[in-house]
């Protein structure tokens, strides 16, 4: 009589554990280590050109050595830091790009709309993803029909006459 009860108890424990909702990806951090993405190195210290004319200190303000990732990225990609000013006018060289990228309008709630649509898609596609007896990554199973095969897309582009010189053949 004890054996059927223990089997029933173990089965019930697995069923209850399988109903937890941890999302599609079952990813666990390997430990409580530091977050390497929160550390930003500062710029190297430089000597001023003239020690007689030093800038006034700005308590609570920015230093010359403080990192500014957005401005650094814009400069690295060939832009100017002045373009980061939200009140600055769009340079004439970028006018065509801004016109082309905003021709359909830019809704302000894009992220919320995409989030709700994706939640609804996952709800419809992943009806049985909450039942888990083992740690399984269900992400690729749910989004399987939404993925593109790069080689298949490349071949269809080649058959359509589109040149794809940088893409290697599928057999390599």
Give the SSE layout.
Layout: H1 2-18, H2 69-76, H3 95-101, H4 110-125, H5 139-142, H6 150-159
Pfam family, one: DUF3035
Organism: Ruegeria denitrificans
Region (Disordered): 144-172
Highlighted features:
172 residues, mainly alpha, 6 helices, extended
Structural write-up:
InterPro entries: DUF3035. Residues 144-172 are annotated as: Disordered. It comes from Ruegeria denitrificans. This is Beta-barrel assembly machine subunit BamF. With 172 residues, the chain is mainly α. The protein has a domain at 111-163. Helix content is 36%, strand content 0%. The protein has helices at 2-18, 69-76, 95-101, 110-125, 139-142, 150-159. It is extended. It starts with a helix and ends in a 13-residue tail after the last helix. The mean pLDDT is 77.
Q: What's a quick, concise take on this entry?
A:
This protein has 172 residues and is mainly α.
Q: Give the N-to-C terminal Cα separation.
A: 63 Å
What is the count of DSSP helices, taking H or I runs of 4+ residues?
6
Largest sheet: none
Given the helix and strand composition, which structural class is it? mainly alpha
Residue share in β-strands: under 5%
**Radius of gyration, whole Å:** 27 Å
């Amino acid at each position: 009589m004890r054996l059927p009860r223990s089997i029933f108890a173990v089965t019930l424990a697995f069923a209850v554990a399988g109903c937890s909702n941890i999302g599609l990806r079952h990813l666990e951090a390997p430990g409580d280590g530091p977050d390497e993405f929160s550390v930003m190195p500062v710029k190297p210290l430089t000597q001023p050109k003239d020690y007689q004319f030093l800038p006034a200190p700005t308590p609570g303000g920015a230093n010359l050595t403080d990192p500014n990732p957005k401005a650094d990225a814009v400069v690295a990609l060939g832009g100017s830091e002045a373009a980061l000013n939200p009140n600055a006018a769009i340079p004439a060289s970028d006018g065509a790009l801004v016109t082309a990228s905003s021709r359909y309008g830019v809704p302000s709630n894009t992220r919320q709309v995409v989030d709700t649509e994706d939640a609804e898609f996952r709800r419809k596609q992943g009806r049985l993803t909450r039942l888990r007896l083992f740690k399984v990554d269900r992400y690729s199973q749910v989004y399987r029909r939404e993925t593109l095969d790069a080689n298949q897309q490349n071949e269809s582009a080649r058959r359509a006459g589109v040149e794809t010189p940088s893409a290697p053949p599928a057999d390599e």
